[in-house]
Structure prediction request, 50 residues.
Amino acid sequence: MAGSKHRNQNGNKDLPLGKSEDVEFSRDLADRDDLEAMQRAEEADRRAER
Prediction:
């Protein structure tokens, strides 16, 4: 299938298939949910490193 594009789960073409991406984060603009998500992500990273 030369020339075929990968599709994501929704069937959209040309979208990134990466596992992670860089995003800017500002603690000044973060709400409680953002801070909780950041804490949970850090804990998950620590568990994954074991």
Q: What stands out?
A: The chain is about 35% helix and 0% strand. The mean pLDDT is 78. Residues 25 and 34 are 9 Å apart (CA to CA).
